[in-house]
Amino acid sequence: MNPGSPRWDEEGAALLVTLVVALLLMVMSLALLELVWQESLSAHVGKQAAIVQQLADAAGEVVIGWFHDPATVPPMIAPVLEKRFIASDGTPTFFDQNGRSQFVGTPERPDIVLDASDPTHDHVLNDPDRGLFRNMAEWGTIRLMKIYAPIKPGLLCTVEVTVEMNQPTSFSTPLRQSINMQLEALELPVLRSGIRAGGHLDLLSDDHGVSGVHWASAVSGGHVVVRRVADIPLLNPSASLTGLSYGESTVLEDRWMQLWVGGLVQAIESSSNDSPLPANVHQGQAPPGFPLERWEYEQLKQTAMRFGSYYALGADGLLYEDGVMEVGSGLSPSQVFTSRQVGDQQGLIFVDTLDRSAPRADNLGIVSITGPYFEGVAVIQGHVRLRFSGSGNRLTVLSPRDTSGGRTTVGLTGIHFNGVLYAAGNIMVESPVKVYGAVVAEGHIQAPDGQGRLEVWHDDDMSWSLFRGLPVVYRASGTWRGQY
Fold this sequence. Notes:
Blueprint lengths: L5 H63 L9 H4 L3 E2 L5 E2 L18 E4 L3 H8 L13 E9 L8 E9 L10 E10 L7 E5 L3 E3 L8 E3 L2 E4 L3 E3 L7 E2 L17 E2 L4 E3 L3 E3 L13 E2 L14 H11 L1 E5 L5 E3 L11 H4 L11 E4 L13 E5 L4 E7 L1 E5 L6 E6 L10 E7 L1 E7 L3 E3 L2 E10 L3 E2 L6 E6 L14 E3 L5 E3 L1
């Protein structure tokens, strides 16, 4: 075929078109490969960023945990985290009388700093066996942690944490991220008494046991009724820490027991041969013992709505979660105030008054707690009837701190209530009830038929405003910030 012929021209044009198409396909393939590469790189970087952010968040949660469990705090910084001020009611607090936080540092001069560039600090932070963040070692390390003054007045502190991924990859160098958040404190009044009644208090006994308090004081604003004066436990700084109830002990004594009475001690079975009141009984106290440790209605209500459970009490005696009074949605008190086993912590449960306003004499309902075991903080804005069933549970707890700050592990048996029972009205004890924690009534604590017995082992953590199921500090809303 001769060049220049029509057929030659057609074949040449076709070859040129084929070459152009092949070139375009090659360019498109290269572009697709580049796109796939970029997508893979972006996905990997995104995965790394998510891991780094989770590490930083976890480090911030560890700091929050320090405030809840002082035993986990590194000794080198523990003193800085302790409450340094005393409120007007004598309770420890993070804030001075003007509401300023005890944390006053700056980012340049923080109250607390742990810098991994310092080998000692790196050991505290990242040691694979004992470091604070050893469980994160597979993913990354903590490079810097700071705690300093809050930016917003009224908050507790600022926590700043910088974390880094462990190894570089073929895609990128290790990522670092810093987070910055503000912490807020929930400061409830401490509970230093095992039993406290604003009115009268029945501490009765029968052939099976004796009412009373272990490891703290009992306080009554009115009279205290006992069966016999000899049933009042004696104060003995050398008393053993066996965990035995008073009914199981040959000698009724305790290391911390004081009985503060606003009125008089009245014995049902009295005679001319009665012993005088022991030295740890203080009658005619006004106010009795410590100031009344009152938990404010509105504060507890808002706290329950945010961190716990809020219930309205219906005229039918049922409890309605979040105050929603829908037919068929009410729960019995036994459903609400029951834990299946030790460790089934129910947290803060707040039961409101009948009209959902601050408690008065005419708006208090009655809540009956009748389950076998409960673990939590029960705040009842009304009257309470206690009639526990069953033999209770065994707990392993810590005794109060001794003069050196040490505590002893003690086994308790037959515990029905593990936590706080706080009633705005009266508490009627209608069965033998054993409590680890504290029982408080703004009204009377009574055994109406003379058969109820109340025995309390005080949880010393409550003397330091530490209540299981309630936060000591928490992340203030809207304060989290992250930066690379």
